[in-house]
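Q: Sequence in, structure out?
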Amino acid sequence: MKLDILTIGDELLIGQTLNTNAQWIAVEMTRIGFEVRQQLTISDDEQIIFDSVDEALKNSDVVLITGGLGPTKDDLTLPVLNKFFGGELIENKEVYKDIERLILSRGFKMNQNNKNQALVSSACTPLRNEHGTAPGLWFEKEGKVVVAMPGVPYEMKAMLSDTVIPQLKEVYELPEIIHHMVYTQGLPESMLAELLEDWENSLPATIKLAYLPSPGRVKLRLSSIGLDRNKLQQDINFKVEELKKIIPDNIYSENEEDIQRVIGDLLRSKKLTVSTAESCTGGYIAHLITEIAGSSDYYLGSILSYANEVKINQLGVNADDIKKYGAVSQQVVKQMALGVKNNLKTDYALATSGIAGPTGGSDAKPVGTVWIAVATPNGVISEKFVFGKQRDINIQRASIAALGMLRREIK
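A: Exactly. Output:
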């Protein structure tokens, strides 16, 4: 079953309001077996709304609309849909009671705008809104469904989950759909695709693979759709087990967990601790680790050694080594990791030193050069990376690379 998502509002088009509704609807509808054909954001214009609904219905089975159901003159969804489906605007007593109850409970009096919101199209079935004043609208035409919902996210989410999805399941026999996520780290998308080429070519026609890259990570999404959920899951599980044999060290999660959470679980289960000494990453690794509730169980703290004086005085880095090799060097970053490990008395320690950019590079050490070290109970390992020229992306990549090195050492 194909689905179109229409979000209405000039504030969305000009970027004044982030369009989170479309993303959330797409996730929920894909989860129950719909194929999202398109997401379309349109302005508060009668003709554009009318034409967009007409075009969507020609190509999809269901059209979900958010926005434009409020009490003001720029809210045009109801009159346009009423015209499109050939209805009349009539007051609905149940909707009026819902609105009145909500308005009075908030200490206000009903005004004309509130009363106008009790008008619905005679061509639709109104959907009651327990969290706001605008009712939803359910239209059917030639076996297809159009549903208009409020644009306020929490109102829309409640209506979709509690009313719209259950009713759609009654109207349509929906297939089973499975999305299995495999999170990888340590291989860029191009190298990963080359490494997995034979495995990808061996996937059955029922399984689709998507590469979803982000700084320092690549998510692999295996999708399958059909009627037998158990068979779909078995087929995907078989191919994932093959994948684990090809890139065993690069897969860090199949539960859609961030790498910092995976590391936290490892440290907690083994009763180990970690600390960080950051230069070029500026505390971003510490930020990622402490995003996880309860990270104080295993994360003791950080020394933000941006200046060489801090590296020398707080971490015990040899000043002569900084002069000889530079702050961005294997010699210095290994001493940083050992210094913070000893100072904070942790089992493991991470250290980063690099040139985040956009300036400061040289022919020998271009922008994006980063040295990362991990101090372990058995010694120190280090690795050099050369990322790109964009400062914020370099910081993210270096932080994820450091966490990836730590995960492999803990395992």
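The mean pLDDT is 95.
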